[in-house]
Structure formats: C-alpha cells, structure tokens
Specification:
Rossmann fold, seven-stranded mixed sheet, 273 residues, 40% helix, alpha/beta, Helicase, Ruva Protein, domain 3, two-stranded antiparallel sheet, Ribosomal RNA small subunit methyltransferase A
Length: 273
C-alpha cells in the first residue's frame, strides 16, 4: 500500500476506515500471524492491502471480505490479485462455516477491524467458532481492554465473559494513532483470540449465559440479589455459593456459568412438569 493510493481513495466514515500505513507495524503483525502455505486465511476489510500484499507471499490463496465496492475495484488492480479471492459483502453476513466445510480445514481470520463493527463482528464470529482456528485483529484499545478484563476491573462486563468463555485472548501490540491514515482519535491494539481446545468453561446453553449477563450488567450498580431477582431468589444464589450482595462486575465467569446451568436445569424441570 502506498500513500499515493491513500490519497486516490478517500476513507469513508460509514465504514469506519482507518488505514494502517507504518511498515514496521505491518511487519510485526505479519510475524505474529505467521501465515503458513497450507493454512486457510481470511482477511476482513483489506482496505488498501497493507496486510494483504505481504501475506499473499506466503499463501497460494488469500480470501478477503470487503464491503466497499471502490476498494474491491482497487484490489483487482493489484499485481497479486490472482492470489486473492474477493468476497464483496458484509463480514457480518459472511458464512464462515460454509467456507470451513468447503475447505475441510479450520480457518484463520485476521484484519484491521473498523471500530464501528468490531464488537458485533467478534460476537458474530463466536457463533461460528467451531470453524475457526484463531483470530488476529486490530481493535480500539478500549474494546480490547473489555475483552481481556477480569472480575473487579471497571472494563469487566458481558463482552469479557462471553469472549473469555469462547477464547484465550492476548494483547500483543499497542499501536498509536499516527500509524494510521486518517489518524484516529483512539489508540489501537493488536490481539489474538484462540478458541479453547478443551472446555475451560461449560454451559448447557450459551444463550442463557448471554441472557443472565445482559440483565446483570444492564443494572451493574445494583447488587445481584436485586438485578437478577426475576431469575434467582436470594436463597438460590446462596445455595449456588454466590454472594447475593455482590454486583455484576464481582461475579466470575465460572460463577456466571454456574448460574446459567442452574437456570437451564430449572427451565427443563418446569417443562417436564
């Protein structure tokens, strides 16, 4: 990617586009991703091909998903376009499972994610987690901090719990705004999310876990005896060894899983009766 191409293409706010331009950072990211010839890599939002071009050197084919038709046209003009398979569509609608079944191989997803869809996209990818080997993303620092936060931390919330339920998460690089064009108002980080190979946490139904955490953190300043009173009595919380006077941010992931599994069994018993 060249600065000349950046000025030819004006980034669109509607897609949250901020293009990475620092070659040293790009090289660091490629080392982290460590693409191998036999792997299936999918890039979300290739933009001006800052990562696309160098990663193509390691692969026979790179799959890219780009929503912006102008950038799709630009990608087709690059000399390495014969190595990329372009899907002109929204990454939030892409069928990653279908690609997995077609290739008969787990896929690796990476990209400099637009800030306006990063959280939604990660949650969407969790729904197709069985198709994914790992994910490597550039994210807004604040989002990354929420992903890795532990109980008691001000950033700890529903996103922390759901993300850590599915994946081991590592922050690998901290990247300042001047490494992008246009220069964003926020700092960024590059992270790795690797799905747990063994069940670190277990719930019968992740939708119940999602529901409990949503209710709890909508009222995060309330103690859970009050915020979750429609789901659990104080007696039930005590029986589950969860302090009813704790707030949502003080409850661990394992404890939320315990609540989820209790509620699952409770619902099932009601249905049987």
């Amino acid at each position: 990617m060249s600065i000349k191409n950046f000025y030819k293409y004006f980034p669109l706010k509607q897609y949250g586009q901020n293009f990475l331009i620092n070659k040293n950072v790009i090289n660091d990211i490629i080392k982290i991703i460590n693409p191998q010839k036999h792997q299936i890599l999918v890039e979300i939002g290739p933009g001006l091909a800052a990562l696309t071009k160098p990663i193509c050197q390691f692969l026979e084919e790179l799959i890219v998903i780009e929503i912006d038709v102008c950038l799709v046209d630009l990608l087709k003009k690059y000399f390495f376009c014969s190595k990329i398979k372009i899907f002109h569509q929204d990454a939030l609608n892409f069928d990653y499972k279908k690609l997995y079944f077609k290739k008969n191989k787990l896929i690796r997803v990476f990209g400099n994610l637009p800030y306006n869809i990063s959280t939604s996209l990660i949650l969407y990818l969790f729904k197709q987690i069985e198709a994914i080997e790992d994910m490597n993303f550039m994210l807004q620092k604040e989002v990354a901090e929420r992903l890795v936060a532990s109980p008691g931390n001000k950033s700890y919330g529903r996103l922390s719990i759901i993300s850590q339920y599915y994946c081991k998460i590592k922050i690998l690089l901290h990247i300042t705004p001047e490494n992008f064009q246009p220069i964003p108002k926020v700092h960024s980080v590059f992270i790795n999310l690797t799905p747990h190979k063994n069940f670190l946490y277990f719930v019968y139904d992740v939708n119940i876990l999602s529901r409990i955490t949503k209710i709890a953190f909508q009222n995060r300043r309330k103690i859970i005896r009050h915020s979750l009173k429609t789901l659990f009595s104080e007696k039930e919380l005590i029986e589950l060894k969860i302090n009813p006077k704790f707030r949502a941010e003080n409850i661990s992931i394992i404890e939320y899983c315990r609540l989820s599994n209790y509620l699952y069994k409770k619902f099932n018993n009601l249905k049987k009766n």
